[in-house]
Design goal:
- The complex is a heterodimer.
- Chain A is α+β, with helices and mostly antiparallel strands.
- Chain A has a five-stranded mixed sheet. Chain A has a two-stranded antiparallel sheet with strand order 6-9.
- Helices cover about 40% and strands about 25% of the residues of chain A.
- By secondary structure, chain B is an alpha+beta fold.
- Chain B has two domains: about 150 residues, Nucleoside diphosphate kinase-like domain (Alpha-Beta Plaits), CATH 3.30.70; about 120 residues, Alpha-Beta Complex (Conserved hypothetical protein from pyrococcus furiosus pfu- 392566-001, ParB domain).
- In chain B, about 30% of the residues lie in helices and about 25% in strands.
- In chain B, strands 9-14-12-13-10-11 form a six-stranded mixed sheet, covered by helices on one side. In chain B, strands 2-3-1-8 form a four-stranded antiparallel sheet, with helices on both faces.
- Classes of the chains: A alpha+beta, B alpha+beta.
- Chains A and B meet through α2 and β3 of A and β9 of B.
- β3 of chain A pairs antiparallel with β9 of chain B, so a sheet runs across the interface.
Chain lengths: ~240, ~300
């Protein structure tokens, strides 16, 4: 499979370098991309970021691209670049946390991710610029959330969990991961209900959860999310 | 960490004695980088006194204190121009003066107002008189009140609900969330031109009064403009001289107007009707440009 690269992503990210943003799960191939690819971005000012994408996009419209923009959702703006009626690339610009189905995260996690972002230096057109990505622990948490959200429909998302497990090889790092996850995660309402229909995690994990319900009752509330996650983690690794 | 964007809505009113300078006054307001003109509304009150009272009813001084100050207005032309603006730099502070009527004012508005008064108030000898050609709001609630007085029930809410979050379009369009950017041939673009109070017809860009005005046929454009005098929102800020000046310097989609797209809707496959931007597309056509980027509302 060959890269599309009809859009020069360097141009877009050079233009938004003064914005407060973080690219989520930035692909290793960046700035190369395959046709139909996308990029998820958390933005402190999503509207301004989107306007800057359109400003660069004008040049591509003059070359025959069509840009479809959808800002009907409160927390997200989609900007799709089409060429010959075929989606070439999509910018998913988040103005708030995505509505996760299986994980409940506190909204300020979104701003903390942007606040703690780290810069990746890049060179383009003899100019140095920066692309911002989440710090390592936030990146792992986001990958973990992605796994929880999708693994039932997309078994290939197990890769995210494997990535998280490998990255958390040291005890220190693992504790930092769980501490931060505990800080921002809230249990889904359905987590307290013994119904397999409502609790959409895998059977293996579900069983583990059910088995530990008695323990959960005896555990102080603030320690519950961390304990469940630690147990899930241990189980999947085994 | 995150900057909070502060803005408020204000208005200027050009009284009858200042209307001869309206284009210069609008230019001064437009020249301030923090003030964004949203609408210009001509108003012909049946009773000037009533209008003066409405304008000053929210003033901090009791009206009897203002009677002398505003007496000159009763003999001015019974026609005024309201200019509604988004004020992106409301530097509010207490102004020195009578401590009884101490109130906050916006320094941006005050400096623009004083510049206009210095230039256009009648002068006696080498001093400016206090027969002001303009008045401006001190705060947003005054703007809200005046909008309601003019019949806009939603007050400043009229301007707050932007039609689209990303692209600036004229304030009276309904809200829309989806649009496409594409390059189109100008021969596929049509403009809805009113032929009467409730009738209109689609014309190609080169057949619009706007294009003809640029080609030298001023009469048709003026006649067309006159048709809208009683219709708020329509062509409310396009004075012929202003349009001519605009046409000479206009650069489509150049910073800082890179997302100020001409807006259209697709009336049939590959055929577009302009919703916002007839003046701009007429300029492009007059310059001999054959295609341009437009935003197509979905």
């Amino acid at each position: 499979m060959t890269f599309s690269n009809r859009l020069d992503l360097n141009k877009f990210f050079l233009h938004v370098q003064d914005e407060e943003y973080a690219v989520i799960k930035l692909n290793d191939n960046f700035p190369n991309y395959y046709g139909g690819g996308d990029i998820d971005i958390f933005c402190a000012s999503g509207d301004e970021f989107a306007r800057k994408i359109l400003e660069v996009g004008n040049e591509y419209v003059a070359q025959g691209f069509v840009i479809d923009t959808d800002c009907s959702k409160d927390n997200k703006i989609n900007i799709d670049f089409y060429v010959n009626d075929k989606l070439d690339f999509r910018f998913d610009i988040y103005k708030a946390l995505p509505a996760y189905e299986h994980m409940q995260m506190k909204q300020w996690f979104f701003y903390s991710v942007i606040d703690r972002r780290k810069a990746m230096k890049r060179k383009y057109d003899e100019k140095e610029y920066r692309v911002y990505i989440p710090d390592e622990i936030d990146d792992l948490i986001l990958r973990y959330i992605e796994y929880c959200e999708w693994h039932e429909r997309r078994p290939d998302k197990i890769g995210h969990l494997a990535f998280v497990q490998n990255a958390l090889s040291s005890e220190v790092k693992r504790n930092r991961f769980f501490d931060r996850l505990y800080l921002y995660a809230a249990l889904p309402e359905s987590a307290g209900i013994n119904s397999e229909d409502k609790f959409h995690i895998s059977r293996k994990i579900y069983r583990s959860f059910v088995f530990s319900t008695r323990k959960i009752r005896e555990t102080p509330l603030r320690e519950i999310p961390g304990k469940i996650l630690k147990r899930m983690f241990k189980l999947t690794k085994a | 960490m995150y900057k909070l964007k502060k803005e408020r809505y204000d208005y200027f009113i050009i009284w009858g004695n200042g209307l001869q300078y309206k284009e210069e006054i609008i230019e001064i307001i437009e020249g301030n980088p923090y003030l964004e003109i949203l609408a210009i509304k001509k108003h012909c009150p049946k009773n000037v006194e009533k209008l003066v009272k409405a304008v000053y009813s929210y003033d901090y001084a009791p009206f009897k204190h203002l009677t002398n100050k505003t007496r000159y207005l009763l003999s001015t032309e019974a026609s005024v121009l309201f200019i509604f603006i988004r004020n992106n730099n409301p530097r509010e502070t207490y102004i020195e003066g009578n401590p009884l009527f101490k109130h906050k004012e916006c320094l941006t508005i005050k400096s623009v107002k004083e510049e206009i008064r210095d230039r256009f108030n009648e002068r006696k000898g080498d001093r400016r008189t206090e027969d002001h050609v303009v008045h401006a709001s001190d705060n947003q609630s005054q703007t809200d009140y005046i909008l309601k007085y003019l019949g806009y029930k939603e007050g400043v809410g009229k301007f707050k609900s932007r039609s689209n979050l990303l692209i600036p379009v004229t304030y009276h369009l309904g809200k829309f969330n989806r649009f496409s950017l594409k390059e189109v041939d100008l021969s596929d673009v049509y403009c809805s031109i009113a032929t009467g109070p409730e009738t209109d017809m689609l014309r190609s860009v080169c057949e619009t009064p706007h294009y003809r005005f640029l080609s030298g046929d001023v009469a048709e454009y003026n006649e067309y403009r006159t048709m809208f005098e009683d219709f708020p929102c329509m062509m409310d800020d396009q004075f012929p001289a202003r349009y001519k000046k605009f046409a000479s310097s206009f650069e489509y989609l150049k910073a800082p107007y890179s997302t100020s797209y001409i807006l259209a809707k697709e009336v049939s496959p590959g055929r577009y009707q302009i919703i916002d931007g007839v003046h701009r597309i007429a300029i492009l056509a007059y310059r001999g440009i054959n295609n341009c980027i437009i935003a197509v509302k979905k």
